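Quick one, C-alpha cells below. Sequence please?
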C-alpha cells in the first residue's frame, strides 16, 4: 500500500476587501510597525491597503494612482514612509506618521510596463532607488552598486550602476522573466518566467552570472518568486492558482498550496516567516508554514 501524506494545511487566515486583484504585497518590518504588525497590499484598482494583522482588518486605504494598478510597495528605513509604484507612471512617497496618508513627493516614470522598482539601503538616511525607464541617467555613486534585472527576452543581466555598463548576462528562460530574487550570502539567485521552469543561477567572484540548475513546474506562469529572509525557503506565485514552496538550498518541493480560485500574482515573507499571497480573486491568504526556530 502506498504511503499517504496529509495535505498541506489551509491558510492561517484570509484578508478580504481588497476590492480588486491584488498585485503586490509588502510586510512592514517589525521595527517600523510598533506593536501592531502591518501588511501593505497594492491593487489593480490603484488603491494601497494597510492591513492590521492583529485585527485582520484594513487599517487604512491610500488612493494616489488615479485608478491605475499598483505593482510595487516598499517601506523606507527612516521611519513611517512608503513608496508605491503604479501603472499611472508615478512612483509616490507617502508620509504615514501619526495617522497621516499624504503623498509628499513623486517621480514620473518613463515606462508603464510590469518592471518593478528596487531600493538599495546604504545606511540611514542614504538609499538608492532603481526605477524602470527607457534611458540611463547619471549616477554619482562611489560604492559601485550592482543591479540585477530580468528582461522580456528571458535573460537576467547584472549592471554596474556607476559605470552604466553590463557586467554579465545569461539567458535563463524561453519566456519573459516575471520575477527574481537574490541571496547575497550564498551569491545565488532564482528567477521565474511565463514558462514552466524556475532557473537558479550564481554570481561568481568576477561578477559573472552562471546558470546552475532549472526546476520544471507542472504548469506555466510564475508571477513572482521570493526567498524567505532566513534563506531557508523559497515561494512562488503561480498563474495556475497555486503557491509553491521549495527548500532554497536543494530546490526540493515542500508544499503546493491550493486555496485561491484565480491566478496568484504575488507572494511575500514576513521577518518571522509568515507567508502572504495575493490573487486575482481579490483575496490575501496568510500562511504559517515551517515556522522559523
Amino acid at each position: 500500500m502506498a504511503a499517504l501524506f496529509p495535505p498541506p494545511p489551509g491558510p492561517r487566515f484570509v484578508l478580504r476587501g481588497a476590492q480588486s486583484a491584488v498585485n503586490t504585497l509588502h510586510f512592514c518590518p517589525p521595527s517600523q510597525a510598533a506593536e501592531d504588525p502591518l501588511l501593505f497590499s497594492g491593487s489593480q484598482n490603484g488603491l494601497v491597503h494597510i492591513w492590521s494583522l492583529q485585527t485582520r482588518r484594513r487599517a487604512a486605504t491610500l488612493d494616489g494612482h488615479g485608478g491605475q494598478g499598483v505593482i510595487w510597495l516598499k517601506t523606507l528605513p527612516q521611519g513611517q514612509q512608503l513608496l508605491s509604484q503604479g501603472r499611472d507612471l508615478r512612483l509616490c512617497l507617502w508620509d504615514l506618521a501619526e495617522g497621516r496618508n499624504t503623498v509628499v513627493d513623486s517621480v514620473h516614470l518613463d515606462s508603464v510596463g510590469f518592471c518593478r522598482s528596487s531600493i538599495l539601503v546604504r545606511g540611514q538616511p542614504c538609499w538608492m532607488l532603481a526605477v524602470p525607464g527607457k534611458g540611463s541617467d547619471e549616477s554619482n555613486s562611489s560604492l559601485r552598486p550592482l543591479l540585477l534585472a530580468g528582461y522580456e527576452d528571458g535573460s537576467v543581466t547584472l549592471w554596474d550602476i556607476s559605470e552604466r555598463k553590463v557586467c554579465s548576462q545569461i539567458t535563463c528562460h524561453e519566456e519573459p522573466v516575471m520575477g527574481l530574487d537574490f541571496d547575497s550570502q550564498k551569491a545565488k539567485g532564482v528567477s521565474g518566467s511565463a514558462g514552466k521552469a524556475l532557473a537558479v543561477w550564481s554570481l561568481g567572484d568576477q561578477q559573472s552570472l552562471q546558470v546552475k540548475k532549472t526546476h520544471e513546474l507542472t504548469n506555466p506562469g510564475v508571477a513572482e518568486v521570493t526567498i524567505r529572509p532566513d534563506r531557508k525557503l523559497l515561494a512562488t506565485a503561480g498563474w495556475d492558482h497555486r503557491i509553491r514552496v521549495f527548500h532554497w538550498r536543494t530546490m526540493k518541493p515542500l508544499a503546493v498550496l491550493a486555496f485561491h480560485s484565480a491566478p496568484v500574482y504575488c507572494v511575500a515573507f514576513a521577518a518571522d516567516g509568515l507567508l502572504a499571497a495575493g490573487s486575482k480573486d481579490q483575496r490575501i491568504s496568510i500562511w504559517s508554514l515551517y515556522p522559523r526556530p
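Residues 14-132 form a domain with the Methylamine Dehydrogenase; Chain H fold (CATH 2.130.10.10). The CA atoms of residues 86 and 184 lie 28 Å apart.
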